[in-house]
Amino acid sequence: MKIDKQHIEDTNQKSLDSHRASFGYIANRLTQKGIEVDDVVQKLADFQVAIPSWALGAGGTRFGRFGFQGEPRTLKEKIDDVGAIHALTQTAGAISLHIPWDLPEDYKAIKQLAASHSIVFDAVNSNTFQDPKNAAVSYRYGSLSHTDEAVRQHAVEHNKKVIEIGNELGSKSLTVWLADGASFPGQTNFQTALNQTQKSLREIYITLPGDWRLFIEYKPYEPNFYSTVIQDWGTSFMLANECGEKAFTLVDLGHHLPNTNIEQIVSTLMLKGKLGGFHFNDSKYGDDDLTVGSIKPYALFLIFNALVYGMENNPQNPYPAWMIDASHNIKDPLEDIIQSLEAIQEAYAKALLVDQKLLNDAQQDHDVAMCQEILQEAYRTDVRPLLEKSRLQHGGALHPIKAYRSLQVRKRLIDERGMDSVASGL
Amino acid sequence: MKIDKQHIEDTNQKSLDSHRASFGYIANRLTQKGIEVDDVVQKLADFQVAIPSWALGAGGTRFGRFGFQGEPRTLKEKIDDVGAIHALTQTAGAISLHIPWDLPEDYKAIKQLAASHSIVFDAVNSNTFQDPKNAAVSYRYGSLSHTDEAVRQHAVEHNKKVIEIGNELGSKSLTVWLADGASFPGQTNFQTALNQTQKSLREIYITLPGDWRLFIEYKPYEPNFYSTVIQDWGTSFMLANECGEKAFTLVDLGHHLPNTNIEQIVSTLMLKGKLGGFHFNDSKYGDDDLTVGSIKPYALFLIFNALVYGMENNPQNPYPAWMIDASHNIKDPLEDIIQSLEAIQEAYAKALLVDQKLLNDAQQDHDVAMCQEILQEAYRTDVRPLLEKSRLQHGGALHPIKAYRSLQVRKRLIDERGMDSVASGL
Amino acid sequence: MKIDKQHIEDTNQKSLDSHRASFGYIANRLTQKGIEVDDVVQKLADFQVAIPSWALGAGGTRFGRFGFQGEPRTLKEKIDDVGAIHALTQTAGAISLHIPWDLPEDYKAIKQLAASHSIVFDAVNSNTFQDPKNAAVSYRYGSLSHTDEAVRQHAVEHNKKVIEIGNELGSKSLTVWLADGASFPGQTNFQTALNQTQKSLREIYITLPGDWRLFIEYKPYEPNFYSTVIQDWGTSFMLANECGEKAFTLVDLGHHLPNTNIEQIVSTLMLKGKLGGFHFNDSKYGDDDLTVGSIKPYALFLIFNALVYGMENNPQNPYPAWMIDASHNIKDPLEDIIQSLEAIQEAYAKALLVDQKLLNDAQQDHDVAMCQEILQEAYRTDVRPLLEKSRLQHGGALHPIKAYRSLQVRKRLIDERGMDSVASGL
Amino acid sequence: MKIDKQHIEDTNQKSLDSHRASFGYIANRLTQKGIEVDDVVQKLADFQVAIPSWALGAGGTRFGRFGFQGEPRTLKEKIDDVGAIHALTQTAGAISLHIPWDLPEDYKAIKQLAASHSIVFDAVNSNTFQDPKNAAVSYRYGSLSHTDEAVRQHAVEHNKKVIEIGNELGSKSLTVWLADGASFPGQTNFQTALNQTQKSLREIYITLPGDWRLFIEYKPYEPNFYSTVIQDWGTSFMLANECGEKAFTLVDLGHHLPNTNIEQIVSTLMLKGKLGGFHFNDSKYGDDDLTVGSIKPYALFLIFNALVYGMENNPQNPYPAWMIDASHNIKDPLEDIIQSLEAIQEAYAKALLVDQKLLNDAQQDHDVAMCQEILQEAYRTDVRPLLEKSRLQHGGALHPIKAYRSLQVRKRLIDERGMDSVASGL
Q1: Per its UniProt entry, which superkingdom is the organism in (chains A, B, C, D) (predicted)?
Q2: What are the C-alpha distances in Å from D233 to residues B338, C271, D217, D249?
């Protein structure tokens, strides 16, 4: 399945006048305030977010899963799905694979398919939290942190294998999310587990190709409910420092204790040059993996404000890898991702509108009320016409959800794949 | 101190053209979507929020308090402060007194002063969480829930006295916030404390004038750190039901455990006709009492969406009493309140833009993605021109904070009251 | 599989002397303090906790499940498992079935089997949060709260069917845990959902046999991540009141927002005669469903202190139904349950040791430090000899976990059922 | 005021027989399990906890403070109070001063007085979160992190002064608790604030006497309610590393987000040799500063289990400084501290009983149920006779609270100091 560019253009036609009027209005307003609107629109176009292969089918909870019709059955179909999203949004120009769920058989064909959708391969993800059928060892009691060297070695080898696969595809980074931990007090020795993890990560690290990066993700709980080996940014940062300069911390929005100030963590990491990647989602209670921006859009804006500041002021930090990491339990997964991309772009655009010069002045003056006014001036602006403009300039849809529906993408996927298709890896 | 209407008009002059352009743009857009813009603007003008007398001076924490210059030293000066806020915002047409911090001496003069500012007296608040100097009994171990009848009676009498004072001023409701609880397991008997509270509230209730209402506030913790007698909406609702039809639950945004879905509580209470009042503020960690909308503006919008729905569909619920209940530790208290009022009006305006018909259709269709689109369509709209219009029509300032500053209100207050004035009650 | 009583007795032999010494010591100490030790031991023996049929196999998370060898494949095998636990602990004299996971085929045989293990049938549980294969309707968007009458009716009928099944087996109560809610703002209309739920519950309620009770469970989130229709005790209490005198609230320890004071909720419900049942487990982050007492044993003691108080002072409240509701992701499920039972009995025993007379006096005197001393005097007592005595008197094991291991129960289950058996319903 | 040793001995007389019986019982039991009881008792005697000078008067909340009679009015009286606690408990052999609240006038006299109570001077604490009267600069907008160099320098100088004072008294460490942060998004630049803090700490660090240590405390929120510069252990650890080998992280139990696994943080810090100090208290909601062990005694035990492990296995970590940091809003402050000390000793004693060899074996075997059994075997043991023995051997009271009351300590303090005395610094 591939969406025809012309069809997108056709759906844009009837909204073009409205878009031009609203863009004209807002561009005029912003220009009066000294903002280079073209720059903002260009930055929006440049901002590409990877889609993880596992988010294209329906997700679920421990209480069950309600499948979704037309789910992609193969890696090729997953790439097609990302291609469809990218065609509409022009923001999803990358896919992030999960091994062993997405083992490519024919690398060349896969790369050609991705290229035909203008999609590149972002960070590859290893899996040491589940046991494949007939596995030689079990990750039930851990992987990189396991007390048994054989299990650790198995997990290290798996990660090396994932790097090889990624290398074939053109990926440049490995993301390690480690579920290792304990569900009960006393189950593990914290210090041993940390030391083993450090050693295992180091073994993986030294096999990284020269232009690769290692992203170390952290998470306070789930699937373990007492402790997790890499429980917070401090632990990840420490491990990354001990690995070397190609190792970085990866921040996932949902992987924090209640009320954590995430934008401050982002700022600290960028100051130290150690923010490697960022996973977007939203949540109200735990790692709920909801649509980005569906619960706390202002927090997302504040995080983007920190990210924009870091991208402009912290040359010591490499350009971060962006990915959506959400679970689509109840919505059409593709619509869910399109909504997430819209929310990301919106938050980014608003952060770009923050008058950093004025903000800095107000901070120096301790004019706290004015600091808030400056942030909210940007946040309250309706930036949707800027997003539309950016998409329009690159052949995307003015209104991606509407286009997705009017082009009957889901219906076409079902026709192609059937009602009962189940995404591989789920 | 009183702000001259003409001076406000003067400050509006230079922004008028800009306002007209932006209002024209948004009014046109909304009208195309079938929204009655005049209705929205009128509703914004009708929405009046009470300012509590204790929020006009600087607040503090247990670690100390940094005072603010020009704080109101008397009830009269507090009314002047609210008058200044109301003159600029046209949204603060009421004051909520706290007894014994605001004991009026000359009722007639106080009422005349308030009337001269177009301010009415909203709910009166009793205080049984502190001991006045030389008090006959101590509230150290509780008040309405105390095991000792003498203390309970003292607290009941105080509440009756507060009603009398409120009655003289034209108030129509009493808000009871009960700090009673325990800081340690075992300190109190939960059932006894609840029974005593019920009995005490009933005694207060039966003395309410016929057209009055009793608001029962709840809070999970602070100043007690193990339990609070009225710890949640369920307890307040139960107590209100047992008092009678003039008793209601009062919701304070900051009085919830982490992650509580407050809009659902609001909906339930309005369905049952028991939402009496609402206290606005914002918070990230606990009852932080920050500026409304400064942390979670989308949550505020969702709450307003529930409130608007209830006001339109729940005739069984009386029109709620609105109040800001924030603490201004670091900003100019008046600027802080003005920012809060702006955030409230913004959330209200956006909630008024929600297409309830479309939303209901999408809900019936279980079109979850569309439900979100509909809410976010309203939320993403820049409604500031509507707020400006509403203020402008009633003699308020297009940009209240800017006007407050250009009119040098704080400087005038300091000139009048001195650098070291301390608000009574603090 | 059935554990021979004689075998248990044999395992007890070598610990008998030690037990007698420790029991003698503690009995003497307690007697000196005026405690009737025999009464305490008798109460421990009388305290029976239901085991849910779904907790006998390994649980899992959305990230996967590591199975456990020798899982019970049928209802009969599940009853055998509970029988084994009961034989060892003498505390698990009931099983709680989940329909449709445990549909009995031959009622008479099932009842005879249970009787042979001295096990009765506790509350039956309905399931409207998953779709059985080829279901006529889907619960994807709700069940008792669904907007579509056909789905609601289907869910109501299912509950009626569950009552019928329970009635055949001798159950006397139905537990309704409703997963209904929303994962996104706007997805549902709170008021409609609540009204529909009320109506559906009422329909179920009126078909209850005369000596039955309806337990209405609440939970703030999961599997829905924005709102849950019955989100807290207040909502459950309100619904139970509207159903009638045979409807009650059911409290599950893990179904609360962070930091909730659960013992206060228990006290309020018992005061109002509305605590119907209680589900035991433990947790650190959310509804983690860990072994009872493994994380917060003092909180469990405080809850038991409230339960003991209610059982002694609130004749208006019926004797509650007790059940363990935990998930055994990493331990042998039977060992996990045995540990839970030990923790429950321990907390209960300690609560029975609280000197209620002294506590009441200290509360009257506001002697807060002494209130704490009294609770901790009970809590710090090592009550294990009392538990041993209670088990010994009824043929149980002095040390159930040790006996379980020395009798090689798991090995026998694997021999009987195989390494790869999977519990039905998982 | 000084408690006569003979009087304590007298109060012990009537409980001696009971103590001997219970100690004999438990010592016998433990010896059978291979535990060196004398070692445990000796370790308890060696474990000394500092009492902070500010915890000897009543604490309060932002809603007010209920004073306590007989509060110490001067540093001398504070030392007397700690002396009384130490005489009874033999566990409080140190005091921790807070400057400027406890400025000594006559060093020699102060040192002699402390020596007469067998009390040493533990870490000294600086205060840059309040403005002294007529201060040259204000800490309203920060201190060590302030944007204004003059304020930073003032705060640095204050810390240097505190070191000098501590040096005179024999202290060997400085604790820096930095309240700096922001109450609103945008108020500060995270990176600038962190850099300035680093620079200021470094300036303080380089003036440390050769045998001193610098403790850097962290806290997520309060008194700032949006962000705190040193918000978590990761930030403190990073700052300490950047200062040098004499800089350490200080952990305060109450300074964590909900559900944080504190024992894991402790383990990580000790592994890295960076745990400098530990502040004890307890809490249910936030930094509630309640009596140690009054809410979560099992969590305290787990933390002590990590501390004991670290003290035995991490020579790279210096012996940590222990302090109680609680607020006594409702109990007699001295009784409150005595209860805290009892809870600390209890948790320590139980942690000492953990069979580390068996635990390690069970961890290697992934015998999760057994790991729990081993921890709970220790936790469930009633260790009070061991604490009694330890106190008895050093002249303390068998039952400190009872002795405190029977010796009428509070009455004597009131006689000496009056009913309305207020502790300096409050």
Answers
A1: Bacteria
A2: 37, 44, 8, 7
